[in-house]
Amino acid sequence: MAFQLTDGLLLGAATAATQIEGGDQNNNWYDWYRQGYIKDDADPSVATEHYIRWREDLALMKEMGLQCCRMGLEWSRVEPRDGVFDEAAIAHYREEIQSLREAGIPVLLTLHHFSNPQWLEERGAFAVRDNVTCYLRYVRKMVESLGDLVSEYITLNEPNVYAFNGYFQGIWPPGRRSFLEMSRVMTNMAAAHIEAYGLIRKTRLQMGYKDTRVGFANHLRIFAPRDPDNPLHRFWASRAEQLFQGSLTRAMCTGRAAIPIGQHPSIVPGRYCDFHGINYYTRSTVSGPADGVARDCPVNDLGWEIYPEGIVQVCRKVYDLLPRPIYITENGTCDNEDRFRARYIAEHLQALCESGLPVERYYHWCFCDNWEWTEGVSARFGLVHVDYADQRRTVKPSGEFYRRVIQERGVSDELFQEFCGGPYRRSGEDAV
Ligand code: BGC
């Protein structure tokens, strides 16, 4: 394998506040942890202590040559009580973002990445239509406070995963299991995004900036029928695609609602993305209402199929829906021993660079190992290893590989051979 990065493609890394910062016990995920729902009982108010170690992390980002980064704000930190903003927390984020800029690493800022202030959670968060106004008040305040430092925003991270896991499957807070509630949450989030899209652009324009870009980070997966000749498998695959991601994507990008997205006064036809933010990890194999993994295919340490062609397929689909530049806002893999991460990166980047699509950013997930929601700290996605006993950071071989790809603007045969020899594990007979 050998390929060059396409012109204009910047390589960076992504993080999310709750997964790295530590120090906050005022959000719904801390509450979920307190209730005992984290597999290894890892405490999110520790995580990787990025909130106090961010300078060290910034130095590592610089050393690795990252050209951009995606980071998030912890809403419960900046608005610890309803309508009360903490100026010290805002000043902290200003300092961090300013320092990143000075290091030549511009920030793509995520305003909401799964976690809610506990006061909002107790009022039903996005399951309650009126709560969207709380979100918009917070968004306005953040853009007014940080808008001179940040031109690119993500309104919401993966509303489909948030709604599906928290309101249909019941495995994330608040642990509900109702299709109707999931549908209501998706609808309200689509409306929140559409409103925030206009609000962020307007607020920055009033501040004198014309270069604003707003999008959302869309978790997109391939849903493949297990047997393409079986009409039932095809039916369930297309149904899963529509319910999990297809309808929501249309509503959020173009303001057109179809099941499971309901009617809402803010969801009206329009264009609501300046770029497509895409989080891509895997392909699901479908033969019924639940999805699974194909037999004997390459998988990561969480059993997710590794399917590099899929990243191009999902990008093409959204690009056909609305032609906008593409930002890969997350792509990465759980590889606890760092045996195949470099190969995973190379294969996904190659697919993107040979696709002919206007891919402008690639933010690898994740910059460092982190607190992986219900998995706790036992699933490692980082380019940088974190030793949770003493919080020591060490760049992994895949992190060194990434540094070289950035420096050399591509992957040569030699580079591939040096770093990407690690074999993938394969799914077993018990896969679906
Ligand atoms: C989320 C991240 C998460 C990653 C790996 C994405 O769904 O946005 O927060 O860590 O996947 O599971």
Walkthrough of the structure:
The chain is of the alpha/beta class. It is 40% helix and 17% strand. It has helices spanning 17-20, 28-34, 50-63, 75-78, 87-102, 118-121, 132-146, 159-168, 179-206, 231-254, 309-321, 341-353, 397-408, 413-419, and strands at 3-4, 10-14, 68-72, 107-110, 152-157, 213-225, 276-286, 291-292, 298-299, 326-331, 359-365, 384-387, 392-395, 410-411, 425-426. The strands form 4 sheets. It has an 8-stranded parallel β-barrel, surrounded by 6 helices. A two-stranded antiparallel ribbon has the order 1-14. Beta-D-glucopyranose binds next to loops.
Mean pLDDT: 97
**Can you tell me the residue ranges where pLDDT is under 50 for at least 5 consecutive residues?**
none
Query: Can you count the helices?
Result: 14
Elements, N to C (H/E):
EEHHHEHHEHHEHHEHEEEHEHEEEHEHE
Helix proportion: 25-40%
Structural class: alpha/beta
- Our estimate of the beta-strand percent is 15-25%
Shape: globular
* Number of DSSP-assigned strands: 15
Integer-rounded radius of gyration: 20 Å
Measured between the Cα atoms of the first and last residue, the distance is 31 Å
Regarding quaternary structure, how should these chains be classified? single chain
Largest sheet: 8 strands, parallel, barrel
Briefly say what this structure is.
This protein is an alpha/beta fold and 432 residues long.
Q: Any key phrases for this structure?
A:
single chain, 432 residues, alpha/beta, eight-stranded parallel barrel, two-stranded antiparallel ribbon, 14 helices, globular, binds beta-D-glucopyranose
